[in-house]
Amino acid sequence: MPILDDRSLEFLSHSPEQTQRLGVRLGELLKPGDLICLAGDLGSGKTTLAQGIARGWGSLDQVTSPSFMLINEYRRADAARLFHFDAYRLSGVGEAIALGIEELLEGTGPVIVEWPERVAEALSHQRLWISLRWMDDLRRGIHIAANGLRYERLLLKFRQAAFGG
After folding, report:
1. Theoretical Cys-Cys bridge with 96: which of 30, 119, 146, 160, CB 3.0 to 4.6 Å?
2. Share above pLDDT 90 across residues of the chain, in percent, rounded to a whole number
3. What CATH number is given to the structural domain containing 54?
4. If we measure between CA atoms, which residue out of 118, 44, 49 comes closest to residue 84?
């Protein structure tokens, strides 16, 4: 697990189950208003990671790819909500704004954005940007970049929870 610096981390997941477990560790740390961006090609593991994040956060709902719904909302027992936004089918940032991404980002719950590069202008620069790469049928390369003090602290806590260091 190479630690690049205090603001980034790179590692290899060896299975979808491990990717989900890493997501659980991250989800356990999320607070309202947190922005998690999941970038990567089709099949790189974005939805698998999002499933783990939602489970760790405490979602009572089944997590599915929001590709056709664009925005999925997951509930927790305390009535808190997590939002899962998929920008894959959007024509651009104007469509994301029309769908209400700005309201989602105002802090009622954590927000996961898949394909964030398509709507980057609408997203806060304060965020955790996770890039996933397909390595082979099981393995995924994962690079996490933290932008902003909240996310640097979140990355440090994630590193400790997931890797003990």
Report:
1. 119
2. 56
3. 3.40.50.300
4. 49
